[in-house]
């Protein structure tokens, strides 16, 4: 069954104003060119006003885009894959759809390609001009609503996107957006006189002049496709992993994110079949730099990209044999290495010094044993109140672009703090090996408990 498309339009800012081209910061230049997807599912939408709920979402989106105007811009004239952001108020693309089925029949824990195609917006990746923000609103027969979104990563990072969604939810409740975004990207320019650089070779490399940055294209037909699946880690399982990762408290303190990442790193490398002991496995984690650059005037409400990478590397043989505490310690050490103001300032200066050449992450996902991890387990998605009568029932991400796999997203759980939803993006054969790995059984056991309450209708595959 397919959702029926009711309308598709551009939603422009409620107040029309052109801001011209937005400066491209040095941290924008090291971000991948892709559209992350996010969705919020509401079991029912009890909108209490005379205005239709979709009409209200369109109206308030237009109001919020006045402040978050880069999301209503045009991405034009790419140079080595970097787009210029023309803030002319063209608008965000919004699609409205209707599904003649209950929303509870959807399996949010296994959002496959079909789920993404039906319920998440599909960005146009091949045109000369790209749109930064796409929104798809799907209403269901039962009164449920699914709000799907995707945004261009060169315009915003996850923290910026979350700020925008929080502002939108406040507008839906009739509240004024008091904390406005800061668009001062010029603060992330390199310093005009030379400073000693730290070593950034582990995380980044300089592209040769003739290497063109290629945009991520739609997913081709693949006999071994990349699948996305959530695994729920309850509080008990998280405590078990933390005990293993800290050797019963003798090491640490390591965060839950570090402990879970260390556990998945070894198992995902094993599931991919990497076995040569001299191969170097890498784990690349994202780090938010907002709290690290307050001294130069970068506010906590900075809108754009403030993401740095922390890379950990270890031989496959050692990763396989080492206790979890050693792996967690390695990740913790490298996270601490990059989580300083000096490191972020050095990175900005170093990227500036490479111009006109560009900088990109120093790994090849298609040929190297690499896993990427991003943790937002404290993101307040389940606190979002759009005035629909209840908070989101489930918040998740969509599928990955072609060629992007071995990804671990750590997300908040609908069951609150201490629980984690770990989303993996793996090739289908690797996902099968992961789920059949005896060491993965504690995660599966925790997930089965979750699914006993969350399991969708058995008619799912025949109807949706």
TrEMBL record:
Coiled coil: none
InterPro entries found in the cross-reference section: CAT-like_dom_sf, Plant_Fungal_Acyltransferase
Pfam families: Transferase (PF02458)
First and last residue of the signal peptide: none
Protein family according to the UniProt entry: Belongs to the plant acyltransferase family.
Protein name (record): Transferase
Annotated source species: Riccia sorocarpa
């Amino acid at each position: 069954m397919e959702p029926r498309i009711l309308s598709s339009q551009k939603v422009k800012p409620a107040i029309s104003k052109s801001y011209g081209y937005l400066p491209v910061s040095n941290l924008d230049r090291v971000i991948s060119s892709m559209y992350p997807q996010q969705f919020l599912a509401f079991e029912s939408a009890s909108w209490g006003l005379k205005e239709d709920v979709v009409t209200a979402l369109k109206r308030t989106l237009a109001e919020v885009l006045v402040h978050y105007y880069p999301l209503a811009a045009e991405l034009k004239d790419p140079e080595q894959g970097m787009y210029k952001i023309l803030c002319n108020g063209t608008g965000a693309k919004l699609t409205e759809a209707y599904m003649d089925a209950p929303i509870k029949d959807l399996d949010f824990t296994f959002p496959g390609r079909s789920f993404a195609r039906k319920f998440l917006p599909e960005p146009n990746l091949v045109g000369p001009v790209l749109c930064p923000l796409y929104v798809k609103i799907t209403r269901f027969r039962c009164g449920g609503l699914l709000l799907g979104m995707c945004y261009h990563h060169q315009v915003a990072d996850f923290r910026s996107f979350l700020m925008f969604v929080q502002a939108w939810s406040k507008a839906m409740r009739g509240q004024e957006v008091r904390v406005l975004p800061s668009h001062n990207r010029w603060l992330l320019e390199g310093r005009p006189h030379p400073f000693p650089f730290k070593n950034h070779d582990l995380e980044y490399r300089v592209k040769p002049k003739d290497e063109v940055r290629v945009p991520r294209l739609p997913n081709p037909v693949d006999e071994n496709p990349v699948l996305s699946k959530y695994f729920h880690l309850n509080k008990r399982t998280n405590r078990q992993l933390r005990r293993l990762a800290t050797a019963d408290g003798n090491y640490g303190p390591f965060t839950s994110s570090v402990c879970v990442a260390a556990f998945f790193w070894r198992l995902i490398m094993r599931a991919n079949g990497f076995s040569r002991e001299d191969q170097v496995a890498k784990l690349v984690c994202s780090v938010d730099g907002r709290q690290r650059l307050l001294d130069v005037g970068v506010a906590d409400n900075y809108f754009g990209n403030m993401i740095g990478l922390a890379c950990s590397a270890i031989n496959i043989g050692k990763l396989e044999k080492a206790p979890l505490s050693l792996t967690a310690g390695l990740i913790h050490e490298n996270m601490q290495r990059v989580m300083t103001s000096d490191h972020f300032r050095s990175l900005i200066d170093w990227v500036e010094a490479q111009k006109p050449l560009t900088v990109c992450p120093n790994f090849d996902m298609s040929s190297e044993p690499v896993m990427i991890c991003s943790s937002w387990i404290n993101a307040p998605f389940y606190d979002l109140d759009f005035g629909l009568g209840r908070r989101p029932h489930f918040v998740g991400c969509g599928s990955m672009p072609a060629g992007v796999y071995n990804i671990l997203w750590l997300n908040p759980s609908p069951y609150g703090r201490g629980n984690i939803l770990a989303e993996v993006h793996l090739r289908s054969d690797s996902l099968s090996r992961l789920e059949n790995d005896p060491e993965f059984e504690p995660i599966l056991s925790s997930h089965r408990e979750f699914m006993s309450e969350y399991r969708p209708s058995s008619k799912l595959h025949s109807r949706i």
